[in-house]
Amino acid sequence: MNTWRIARLVAAKDLRVEWRSRVVVNQVLPFAALVMVMFAFALDNDQVLTRVAPGLVWLATMFSLLVIVQRAFAVETADGALDALQVAGVRPGGIFLGKAMALAAQLAVLELVLLGAAVVLYKAEVVASGIVLLVTTYVAATTGLAFVGTLYGGLAAGAKGRETLLPLLMLPVVAPVLIGATRATEAALGTENATPSDGWPWIGLLTLFAVVFGVGGALAFGSLIDE
Amino acid sequence: MQPDSGTSSAEDRGWSVSVCAVMDSVVQPVVQPVVQPVVQPVVQPVVQPVVQPVVALVDVVAVLGSFPALAGASLTVNRGEILLLRGPNGAGKTTLLRLCAGLLPVERGTATVLGCDLVADRTAVRNRVGLLGHSNGLYADLTVADNVRFWGATVGATQAEIDDSLTRMGLSNRLADVQVARLSAGQRRRTALACLVARRAELWLLDEPHAGLDAMGRDDLDVTLRDATAAGATVIVASHELERAGALATRVVEVVGGQVRRVAP
Amino acid sequence: MTGSMTSTRNPAEEMQTDPTRDRAPTSTTFSRTLGLAALAGSGWLIVFGLFLSPNDRVQKTGVRIMYVHVPSAWLAYLAFIVTGLSSIAYLWKRTRSLTWDRIAGASAEVGVLFMGITLVSGSLWGRITWGTYWTWDARLTTTAFLFVTYVGYLAVRDLGGSQQQRAKRSAVLAVLAMLEVPLVHFSVTWWRPLHQNETVSDGKLSGLMLFTLFVGIIAFTLLYVWLVLHRQRVLALLDQVDDQGLDVAIAERRDEAIAAQEVPS
């Protein structure tokens, strides 16, 4: 069974679990939307909100990521399935890739909803000239976040007292994505007179990040989930 | 001076790692297409043409946290045996099974399972072993059929083999499309066993497999285990069901205080 | 002992061979010399830093914080690199040894301390010089991230399990951190390009100030090496206590087995 087939198998399984249980759709998406609303309560200024909308969108994404990752691995550890996957000799690289793919799919839906919320709540505007940059930003950032989430989620899964480690470990690591994605999104949306050309250097950073954690994660995942 | 267990002589044991690699990459694809159509296809594991004990543990120490669950256990199991592990709670039966599955590190001693040295690399043995522990390893949101199909797919089982696993454990018909979360504990145990059957492992490690099953389930299990060993697999069962497991087993050992003792027949 | 970085005899070995000693000092001749040198260096730094070096034209006395801040920052990064390299040394099979793991851990602990000092001293310096406790410049922000990453690393080291598990897990984490920190640094640097607040190394330091800075770096480095040496030895002794505890636990477990056997079943 090569790694790619394992990955497809695991990704399909994860998405099927989500399809049957609808936890992300029914719980995490409302949570994310709620976070956006609470930002509005806290910041209480329409111009400020429009200006910082890209940052808030990605911030809400980061917090929701924590929840989705916890859920993704709770599914595995609830009945010892992760152990069983290991005993089955399923290649850890394949498990990593598969879970990352499923995570990316769920993140994509989440980010779309958050973008919509920003347009509605913060009066952010999506301009045609920035669409390409926007889509590329989303693809690059989502890939990186999916890899990081799966990697550290695997580390934090399992034994008691580990779940609380996830935010502490993950948030410093996703900081580059937060910075890069926000700046690129600002450029794409034309916030504060930024032009799309300002945003492309950040795409380079996001892509580097995704590559580093894609490769590093595939190699390291096996060691981190091992007991 | 305590030897640094971290500096295990991996180079010394490197030969056994490469033997495993050779078996996996060369022997398996050669032997499998030849043997498989000849022998019963259902629970047929891949037969390796070597004669050595399936499990050879010598003075193994395994720790859980700082507690030595296994304190110098030695055990030899040959192919085709059904070995019963009995002993009081906390004796180390579960730890022994998990160690043989390559899940726990070997703190001290030597352990060779299916020709693979667990001290050097405990991941090599994993996909040839099937473990049924205390938990079932199921995805509660998926149906019975989804679960068995997934676990079967990890070894490339065909639909026919998956269907047969379901039938063997009495799960076909109406139960196959029920979400695992809605099943009773006994039905979940059967599902877990069906997933194990679909994996066609060479070494079956079962921790209290009869617990929670009704009489029919237990009969189904016994038949399956006998078929598996007839087709070349080896089975180690830890159980408190001394009568039933005793009738099933070809040999019995006692596990007490982290060690294995022979039992007079 | 393979892979040992220290060229002195490990005091743990000394304790083994001399059972009449009931203390386990972690100092050897080399480390005592080193400690004296660090002490001398610190004294020299105090003299130069507080008294002999001149005031800055603009910052007056406030510039003297630099003599603590800059060496601490240097040390924080040095400690980080040492942790990263030791972790790689542990992961590479040829040089695998728990000593590397302990060095990584000791360096991380000392590094966290100096990162904290860097952040606090930088913050105070900013307050005195520019009136703000914090600026979002690249260096400070990256150091803050390094600090949090390290805290996470130390938390993972405390997760439990055997020494090898701890070593492997934290080594992998350290390597990931090594990959991540440059990314953080780049993103923060592009985010807030160095502006004129970065007057630390604008080359306007007089010769004496530079010399004092140099002294500071040397003194702190000596201190760092001394601390890591000792801490690494303490960790080795703690691991040894664990091992001996394991021996005791194994013996107890075996006794429990013998006692159980004597009870007529």
Provide key terms for this protein:
heterotrimer; B: 265 residues; alpha/beta; Rossmann fold; six-stranded mixed beta sheet; four-stranded antiparallel beta sheet; 7 helices; C: 265 residues; mainly alpha; 0% strand; elongated
Instruction: Report the C-alpha radius of gyration of chain C, rounded.
Output: 23 Å
Instruction: Note the quaternary state here.
Output: heterotrimer
Q: Tell me the overall shape of chain C.
A: elongated
Helix and strand composition category of chain A: mainly alpha
Low-pLDDT stretches of chain A: none
How would you sum up the major sheet of chain A? none
> Helical region count of chain C?
7
Assign a percent range to the helix content of chain A.
over 70%
Please characterize this protein's 3D structure.
The complex is a heterotrimer of chains A (227), B (265) and C (265). With 227 residues, chain A is mostly helical. Chain A has one domain (3-225). In chain A, 84% of the residues lie in helices and 0% in strands. Chain A is built from 8 helices and no strands. In chain A, helix 3 (46-77) packs across helix 7, helix 5 (92-121) crosses helix 6 and helix 5 (92-121) runs antiparallel to helix 8. The radius of gyration of chain A is 18 Å and the shape is globular. The model of chain A has no long low-confidence stretch (mean pLDDT 90). By secondary structure, chain B is of the alpha/beta class. Helix content of chain B is 35%, strand content 22%. Chain B is built from 7 helices and 10 strands. Chain B has helices spanning 10-35, 93-100, 144-153, 159-168, 185-199, 215-230, 242-248; strands spanning 55-64, 67-77, 82-86, 108-113, 116-117, 129-132, 203-207, 234-238, 251-256, 259-262. Chain B starts with 9 loop residues before the first helix and ends with a strand. Chain C has 265 residues and is mostly helical. Chain C has one domain. In chain C, helix 2 (29-52) runs antiparallel to helix 7 (207-262), helix 3 runs antiparallel to helix 4 and helix 4 (98-130) packs antiparallel against helix 5. The longest helix of chain C is centred in the last third of the chain and has 56 residues, at 207-262. The chains are: A mainly alpha (227), B alpha/beta (265), C mainly alpha (265). Chains in contact: A-B, A-C, B-C. At the A-B interface, helix 1 and helix 4 of A face strand 6 and helix 3 of B.
